[in-house]
Design a protein that fits this description.
Length: 603
């Protein structure tokens, strides 16, 4: 696990060293550089596999191909054996070296061989060509920009800013953030800096830049029966966990006590010779503290369990968290994720997490709710639905519940319109808080929806955008802030492809995750499988009704007036309504996170 940086078009080792210095947290163990007349590459290393000879950059036999790499290739031993049979010679035992030889043998199609999470940058000195790629699901980030004809890339935006890139805010990206809580790729908060989308690669040569998609989630419904899926899910998930236990350093697991993380811990306990090190975070005095459930699992499997309890009202670490995120991200779970990463890093370098289980098996309540509502309300006469939509639109004040409900009814005419409405109004809508810039939510939904059932279309959108640009960005940035590698077994691309194509009636059942619950009945305690779902809940709404020094500081009118595009008058009106009983906590949270980010990166 590492952080990588590079510039095509500039030969400057000092520049890439400065870029790497911004991400020492991603790789405190080592650093490495390659510079020639055409390209400058750098990396910071967190040593996980082949501690002694895995130093990067890694070269092929004649030194004409060089790679810097962030991530893990879990099937590298199988690929290496195949390449050795074809005559390739290896000088290390690291997964990184497999990349250069696979590229020699298969060209860009080498990516189709890799099962893992990665950001790759490979320089082919013979072709004078830079090849960069991101893993299929988007577990590892990769950013890029072009300045004065020079192509710049890195694992984090802050490295690119070290090159003197302008800090102009992308108004469309900002509107997307206020609509969705995150910024979908390829945009970032900065105009001109982009994210390479999951499952894509780029080739840069002689001033030409070519981007191609090498993988997408395929919709091929599987007609197997319930018994087949029950056995196959557990079998494939066990294989995925086994792959992610490859490590030359201690590893453990985040354990919330929910079905996803508990299943991962159960399978790790079966596959490992020593007790699994597990980690949980709890909040003092909170009703929704999950640590009792985590203890049940820890005791059941005899794990080496570690907990930390924190004062949920202490927001002093929020500026540091938002700095590490690079962009505004209004996911409240960043706080407990950062704290649990800090705890785990004291004992291990690698953790397995349950991230992605909800997207693989439809674990959110919204999927079944949306399906039911569309089925019911789409039966209304078109004239009645159009009338509701028209009346809802006339109530211009989006904080009016009647207008919102009428618009909700009017939106239930088709799948795209229905899901677009849900996404736009997830926090009662909040785009009115910013001036200028039109969001792209409708277009994102349109591009994601196809001739599939509604559940599969919703899942496709969430896997395409919500998963990499919110959940996985949170996991990557918060764990790497603490020099900790996170692995996500539910997002093995083969497993995710299989789970996606389980028929929704079997996958979700009547309450969500039906087939996963059935698959793990023999390995998990029943009180874990069937308990009510909730995530890392934090009391955002309460914070904005109480006196909190950090909130008062960054939401002060004098500060907000200096933050570009914020409608200060509307924010304060909304905050007043919130204090008087209405709930606009998440909308205000978006403003707070943006204000802190602006202070960290622009002021």
């Amino acid at each position: 696990m590492c952080g990588i940086v590079g510039v095509y078009g500039i030969s400057d080792k000092n520049l890439v060293k400065r870029m790497c210095n911004r991400i020492v947290h991603r790789g405190p163990d080592d650093e490495g550089y390659y510079v020639d007349d055409y390209v400058s590459l750098g990396m910071r290393r967190l040593s996980i596999i082949d501690l002694s000879t895995g130093k990067q950059p890694i070269f092929n036999e004649d030194g004409s191909i060089v790679v810097v790499f962030n991530g893990e290739i879990y099937n590298f031993r199988e690929i290496r054996k195949e390449l050795e049979q074809r005559g390739h010679r290896f000088y290390t035992n690291t997964d990184t070296e497999v990349i250069v030889h696979a590229y020699e043998e298969y060209g860009y199609d080498c990516l189709k061989k890799f099962n893992g999470m990665f950001g790759i940058a490979l320089w082919d000195a013979n072709k004078k060509e830079l090849f960069i790629a991101r893993d299929r699901i988007g577990i590892k980030p990769l950013y890029y920009t072009v300045v004065d004809g020079n192509f710049i890339f890195s694992s984090e935006i802050k490295c690119i800013l070290e090159c003197g890139v302008g800090k102009t805010i992308d108004k469309i990206a900002l509107a997307n953030y206020f609509a969705l809580r995150y910024i979908p790729a390829p945009r970032t908060i900065f105009e001109g800096i982009k994210k390479l989308e999951p499952g894509h690669y780029m080739v840069i040569r002689n001033g030409n830049i070519e981007k191609k998609r090498y993988w997408r989630l395929e919709y091929k419904p599987n007609d197997g029966g319930e018994e087949y899926f029950t056995e196959k899910v557990l079998e494939m998930l066990k294989t995925s966990v086994r792959r992610r236990l490859v490590s030359d350093v201690p590893l453990g697991a985040f354990l919330s006590g929910g079905i996803d993380s508990s299943t991962v811990v159960a399978l790790m306990s079966e596959l490992m010779d020593e007790p699994v090190k597990t980690f949980s975070v709890g909040f003092e005095g909170e009703e929704l503290d999950e640590t009792p459930y985590a203890r049940i699992v820890a005791e059941h499997f005899g794990t080496d369990h570690h907990e930390i309890f924190v004062d949920i009202n202490d927001l002093s670490i929020l500026p540091k968290i938002i700095y590490h995120l690079d962009e505004p991200l209004a996911d409240p779970a960043v706080i407990p994720t950062y704290l649990i990463s800090e705890l785990a890093r004291k004992k291990v370098k690698v953790v397995l997490t349950g991230e992605g289980g909800d997207e693989a098996f439809g674990g959110y309540e919204k999927y079944l709710h949306e399906q039911r509502m569309l089925k019911i309300l789409s039966c209304l006469p078109d004239c009645l639905r159009r009338l509701c939509k028209k009346l809802g639109a006339r109530l211009e004040d989006r904080k009016n519940k009647l207008g919102l409900y009428l618009s909700f009814i009017g939106a239930k005419s088709n799948q795209e319109e229905s899901y677009y409405f849900r996404l736009k109004n997830i926090d009662w809508g909040s785009c009115w808080l910013v001036n200028g810039g039109k969001d792209e939510v409708r277009e994102l939904v349109r591009k994601s929806f196809d001739n599939r059932d509604y559940i599969s279309n919703m899942l496709y959108y969430d896997i395409q955008y919500w998963l990499p640009d919110d959940l996985l960005m949170k996991i990557d940035k918060m764990t790497m802030a603490k020099s900790l590698e996170a692995r996500v077994p539910y997002l093995d691309y083969e497993f995710l492809q299989f789970a996606y194509n389980i028929p929704p009636r079997i996958k979700l059942g009547n309450s969500g995750k039906y087939i996963l619950k059935k698959a793990v009945q023999k390995i998990l305690p029943k009180e874990i499988i069937y308990r009510k779902k909730h995530g890392f809940d934090v009391p955002i709404s309460r914070w904005f009704r109480e006196d909190n020094d950090l909130i008062q500081k960054y939401m002060d009118e004098s500060i907000l007036k200096e933050v570009e595009y914020i409608n200060v008058k509307e924010v304060y009106r909304l905050w007043d309504l919130h204090k008087r009983g209405k709930d606009f906590g998440l909308a205000l949270w978006k403003v707070l996170c943006y204000s802190i980010w602006y202070s960290e990166y622009i002021f």
